[in-house]
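Notes from hallway chat w/ T.B., transcribed later so I don't forget. T.B. wanted the structure written out for a chain they're using in a teaching module, and asked if we could keep both sequence and structure tokens in one place. Agreed to drop them here.
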Amino acid sequence: MKKICSWLDSNIRGGIQILNDGIWPCCGQSEPMFQEDNLDYDNITIDEIKKRRFKVYELMNKNEACVGCEQIVEKPEDEIDIGKIAYLSIGLFATCNLRCKYCYFTHEQLGAKISPKRKKLLPLVKRFADADMLKETVEMGVAGGEPTLLEDLPETLNFLAKRYKSPSFVLLSNSSIESKTKKLAQELKKVDTNIVKSLYTSIDAGTAETYKLIRGRDLFKSVCKNILNYAKEGVFKNINLKYILLFDHENTSDKDIFGFLNFVQKVYLTNNNTTCITLDYDMLSKKVFDDEMVAAAGKIYYVITKIFGMNLYYCGGGLTPCSKKGTENIKKLEEYAKNYPQMSKGLMENLHLVTYKVMAKVKKIKRLIRILRIING
């Protein structure tokens, strides 16, 4: 039996993470395979990446890498394949227009000018494709910084759509730059329909004041407007709205939680494709997932899953089924949600819940009418 994880083993999934300053074999639990300031990707061969991925596997089995990682499993050696990649995560630069409190990039990195090379995504993706490193079901996640600053995103997607049978794409964007999102929405309409496109945006607030406090800029209304435009245009098969809970309780008040859910309701009613939610908390903090955070997360969970009937996911070490700590925290918030209908509530809280239930019925009626129109031609 040998130790392995889903990021290394193509028979489980297979993935790699490429960031502005390094290449990681996984989502960040291990040491980087390559890391240096202004890393020149042109000087790194795909063969060298293959060798270093296998080296991580060897060190893992000598207990010299990834020690204590809860995602490690044991399998027979002949069932392990450190080969093709199913998930290609790319963030070529840190440059961003926001200054989020929980961001692990420095303000200097976020404000750095992007080199012309880093604005081009397609050359790097082609290198992996030409080396036969990508599976037919490859999923490419693109982040940053702010990935709408990339210059060849539509061209890259068309390349994947024509080259592979069932590719998919996830855009991890703050959705705050109106000129960029409008242009991208129109460009994505022209991308080959063979590729499944998803949007992933952290909102983290339900009011403009809290958004500005967390993000450093007063762009809450712009973000909401841009996401609703994406929903209206129908360019993304999935729109995933994320809420990162902060331990100082800056975004756990009912005002923020229900403000966020009010916005989710608008997207839910506008989007004819799939809308879903992801819960997370600030991974840089060492504090405990306390009762106020449990209550905030529990209310979101209840409305999203029990009223809207939408999917809810978890992310981050403290809110993921992949860790013991995460499993415990998830159990707490889901137990809160289970008991939430019987808890005493204020007038405004009850009004919100009644409105959500009415709008959920409206959504079902709209969906039925749309289906009937399709059937009747």
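Follow-up for T.B.: The two ends are 58 Å apart (CA to CA). Might be a good example for the class.
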